[in-house]
Automatic annotation (TrEMBL):
Organism: Arthrobacter terricola
Pfam families named among the record's database cross-references: HTH_20
Name of this chain's protein: ArsR family transcriptional regulator
Domain of life: Bacteria
UniProt keyword terms in alphabetical order: DNA-binding, Transcription, Transcription regulation
Length: 110
């Protein structure tokens, strides 16, 4: 897993990967269940899952001969939230309020 926002946003760039994340919001799914929801081939969906896993947006676990995928929602929320807080004035204010409430020094605005 990598820790760069670029990997997260690259993973989010493809509509199939965004749909996979939406499908996982209600819980864990087997790779075959995910693939059955798309017209793409199994290997194509597997590559999409690999991109999501590499970006840290999904986790996988083995159950006998099945691979089960889960949404790593906190990672997604933190990555997108961190980006938004740097470009959205309202988010900048909210970040400063959060820092003050946790005792961290607030950033100064230019």
């Amino acid at each position: 897993m990598t820790d760069t926002a670029s990997d997260v946003f690259a993973a989010l760039a493809h509509p199939t990967r965004r749909q996979i994340l939406q499908d996982l919001k209600d819980g864990e799914l087997a790779a075959g269940e995910i693939a059955a929801r798309f017209q793409a081939t199994g290997p194509t969906i597997s590559r999409h899952l690999g991109v999501l896993r590499q970006a840290g947006l999904v986790t996988e676990r083995r159950d006998a001969n099945r691979i089960l995928y889960s949404l790593a929602g906190e990672r997604l929320a933190l990555s997108v939230g961190d980006f938004l807080s740097t470009v959205c004035p309202e988010q900048i204010v909210l970040r400063q309020v959060r820092k003050r409430s946790t005792g961290q020094p607030a950033e100064t605005q230019a």
